[in-house]
Design brief:
Blueprint lengths: L1 E6 L1 H14 L1 H29 L6 H23 L2 H16 L7 E7 L3 E7 L4 E7 L5 E4 L3 E5 L5 E5 L7 H22 L7
Antiparallel strand pairs: 1-2, 2-3, 3-4, 5-6, 6-7
Helix pairs in contact: 1-2, 1-4, 2-3
């Protein structure tokens, strides 16, 4: 199967979103940032509550009200702060990328998928390159609604669009069948971790 497509900046950003969502390092940092932010919200609420409450309120009532109110605030903020770390990382990447002048995007790609592996030809104004990878070189597979991300190192991946021609559903099915046959063990375990930033 031969795929002829153009890699765009949107594909690069989608790859970064997927990387931040699936890398163990960023998952752990995201959890830590989430806990710190919720703890900060809880402590801020408690300190404000102690200043707002009148001085004649029973000390026996202050403890349960501050704990209950802090927990309530955390539950209210939960949907907003859950993905904050990942969104900030993608935003930082986009800002750094936009500062680059003449960054070489978009890139014309011709990808040949064979029973042995992938042969990738990339061409743009700054680069002409060819990469060959055996199927065994891939460590994990990610996907979003429009792309597959075939990681051959922790950070480097081949981006394959799921559908080249919007009117041809057969090519999309054929690509999924080929990837399932070659990387099914990785595709089934990692594809559930989609980039939803």
């Amino acid at each position: 199967m031969i795929l002829n497509y153009q890699l765009t900046v949107d594909d690069l950003f989608a790859l970064q979103k997927n990387y931040f969502r699936t890398s163990k390092y960023h998952i752990n940092r995201g959890k830590l940032a989430f806990i710190v932010l919720l703890l900060f919200s809880y402590l801020t609420f408690n300190s404000l509550l102690l200043k707002i409450l009148p001085g004649n309120v029973s000390p026996d009532l202050i403890g349960p009200v501050s704990i209950g109110g802090g927990i309530l605030l955390v539950l209210i903020l939960l949907p907003f702060v859950r993905d904050l770390y990942f969104k900030l990382q993608v935003w930082r990447f986009k800002i750094a990328f936009k500062r680059l002048k003449n960054n070489g995007w978009p890139k014309e790609c011709i990808t040949k998928l064979t029973p042995e592996g992938i042969e990738l030809h990339i061409h743009n104004s700054q680069l002409e390159g060819k990469t060959q990878l055996n199927w065994s070189a891939f460590q994990k597979v990610g996907e979003d609604e429009q792309r597959f991300f075939l990681y051959h190192t922790d950070m480097d991946a081949v981006v394959l669009p799921k559908q080249i021609d919007s009117s041809n559903e057969e090519s999309r099915k054929a690509l999924r069948v080929l990837l399932t046959r070659q990387l099914g063990h990785l595709l089934n375990s990692n594809s559930k971790k989609k980039a939803n930033v």
